[in-house]
Fold each of these.
Amino acid sequence: MSAPIDGTGHPGPVSHVSDTALWVAVHRATESKRKDALFHDPYAERLAGERGKEIAGQLDRGQGSAWSIITRTAVLDDLIMNAVRDGADAILNLTAGLDTRPYRLSLPSSLRWVEVDFPDMIAYKESRLADASPRCALERIALDLTDRPARQRLFARLNEENDQLLVITEGLLIYLTQYDVAALAEDLHAMPHFRRWIVDVLTPELLEWLLKSHFKTFATGSVQMRFGAPGGPAYFEQFGWRAHTVRKITLESRRLKRQMPRAWLFKLLASISPKHVRERFSKFETYLFMLQRA
C-alpha cells in the first residue's frame, strides 16, 4: 500500500493516505509563523513542500480545517508531555506521518520514541530531516499496519522491551473500518505494557455531515474517511480501554483562541434554532482523548 508522496502519480488532491500528512504539515507551518503561535515546528514547511500546499489549497479553501488541525496538535502535545511526566518511558506513534514531536518537544533524552509508517513515507521524512537531531532516542520502522500478523509481532517485541508505553494514533482511525478499529484496539490491549493510548475521533454524525459537505473527496475517492466512534471514548470500553483524559476540540479551540471560521455565526444560529436542530448539531464533535487500560 506504499505510495510516493512527492507529487508523482497524483491525479487528485489525495490519492494515498500519506498525502494527508502533507496537508497537516502545511497547517503546522502556518501556525508556527504566527506571533502568538501555540507551538513552533521549524521543520513543517520543508516537510509539506509544494505538494502539501497544493493539497491544502484544494481541500482547505477558506482555511476550513486549519483550526481543528492546529487545536489537535497543541492539545496532543500537552497530553504527550503529561504522559511522560506520569512515567511513560516509550512512545509508539502509529502512522506517524510527518510528525516532528521528537525534534520539537522538550522530551527527556532517555525516552524511546518509535515511529511506524509506510516505507516511502519514512524514506521521504528521513531525507527531509537528515540535518535535524531528535531530542530523544528515535527509531523508525517501515510497516503496513494493515498487515495484522506483522504488527502483532512488532507490538509483542515492543511490549517486551518497554515497561510503560504510550501509543499514539493521531489521524489514523478515521481512515479505518469499524472492524479494523476493533482489531487494532484488541491488539494494543493484548500488550500489558501498552499502558495508555491517545486517540482522536469524530462522532458518526459529524463524519456524515463532513462527507456530504466539506470533504466529499473522502466519501468516494481512493482515500476514504470511514470511522466515527459512537459514544466517543465510551466506544473503546468494550476492548478493555477506559477514558483517562477527554478533550472536545470545539471547547479546546475556544480556550486556545483557534475557533473555526465564523464560529460566532454558528453560535448565533444555534441560539435561535428549534430544539431538534440544536440537538442534532450538539452531536457534531471531535474528541481527542487519552485512554488507559481498564
Amino acid sequence: MGYGLAVPLVDVNGLRLLTEESGSGDPLVLVYGSWDDRRVWALIEDDLARSFHVISYDRRGHGGSEDSQEPGSRRDDEDDLAGLIEALDLGPAHVVGNSFGASIALGLAARRPELFHALCAHEPPLMSLAADDPIVAEVGERVTSVVEQIERGQAEAAARDFVENVALGPGAWEMMPDEDRAAMVGLADTFAAEQRDSAWADIDLDSVSGIRFPVLLTQGEESPPFFSKIIARLAEVIEGAEVSTLSRTGHVPHMTHPAEYVAAISGFLTR
C-alpha cells in the first residue's frame, strides 16, 4: 500500500472506528493510552511509515470513533484491536502500545497470539503486578480522586489533576498546547468509564507466559519506579522478552523523544 492511504471508518464489533493508514511494508498498528486519540502518534507516524505500513485508529469512544451504548471494558478494547486487524487483513501484525494501549495489546496477545508478529509495549499500567509498592496505592488514590472530580462535572480540574499528579508531573498542564488540553477535557467521561472496569489494571500472567513471538518492553528512565516492577514481572514470564530503558524519557516517549522512540521500535522490529 502507498503513502497516505486512508480508511476513514472501519466496522468493528458493531461500531465504526476512525482509522488511518500510511506507508508500506509490514503492518504496524499503534494503540495509544487513556485521555488521547490517534493524533497523539503524529510525531512518529511519518517516520515509522518509511519502513512500515502504519495503522492508527481512534479507540471506541475516542476522537472520531463511535462508542457503545453500554459501558465498555478493556476486554472490549482488546476485541476491537483484534477486529481491526482482521477487518483490514493485517495479521500477523506488529503492534506498538503505550500505557493503557500497551495493556490492551498485552491482554489481546495473551488470548490471540496468532494476530501478532511482534509487540512493543511501553509502561502498561498493570498495577496488580506491583500491588506491593506503596506508591501504587498512592497513585490509586489519586486516580480515584480524578474520577470523583469527573463525576462531579469538574472535567478540566480532573484532567489537570491527572496530568500533574499522576502522569507527567507539576507544571505539565500549562506546558500542553490548548488543543491537547481541550481534547483531554473532552475525554474525561471516557477515562472515568475505563476506570469503572474492575479488571482494568489486571492481567493473567499464566496466559501471558504463553506468548512466543518477539516482545519489547520499554520504560522511561524518568518514569515512576513502579513501572519498572511491572516491566520486570512481565519480562519474567514472557520467554525471550527484551527490556529497554529509554534514557531521559518518561511515560510518553512518542511525544517527548520521538526520534529516540522510533529508533528503539524500528531497531527491534527490523532485527
